[in-house]
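In line with agreed milestones, the collection of sequences with tokenised folds has grown. One record among many is set out beneath this paragraph:
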Amino acid sequence: MVMKRKDSENQQKNFIGYEYKEIIADSSRISFLLDGYENFGWEIDGNVQEAMGTSHAASAQKAVIHLKRDRKIVNKAELTRLQRNFEACVNEIDMLEKAKTSAATMYAVILGVFGTAFMAGSTFAVTAQPPQYILCILFAVPGFLGWIAPYFLYKKKVQRQTQKLTPLIEEKYDEIYEICEKGSKLLY
């Protein structure tokens, strides 16, 4: 019985100093980010009541992730470097995902503005004294086309950009997996 008491005294919990990190991310990417950060020694902070609650500063589609890591973790400098590479790759993926639609949006808006300008010309032609009906029709046709065509232009441009950028995004995911694998090997 005395031996058990000594063992329990030796098994006292040692002090661990933690560093903390808070990440705001899209709800759809939480699992991906948690899996990645675990490879750099981070774990979910169970002391925070809402570990994945929505942030008041972000929109409803964003979530806050609270993480903690032992301050005296082995290979901390290398893990931190790998973590920064991981974060940079995640940011590049986000930028590539946005690039799929940004150019298409710009082209569609410009075409829509031209359509609106033609419709304004058509309106001015019909309200002129005397009304210019032929000029009104000549301006109305490209005006309506300028209002209808942006949808189809947008879809076509997004499809092209998606085909062009998908291999680059996949390369970034492969790079992330290699970085996470290196981090995992440093931990265990």
Summary: The chain has two domains: 15-73, 74-188. The longest helix spans residues 133-187. The radius of gyration is 28 Å. Residues 74-188 form one domain.
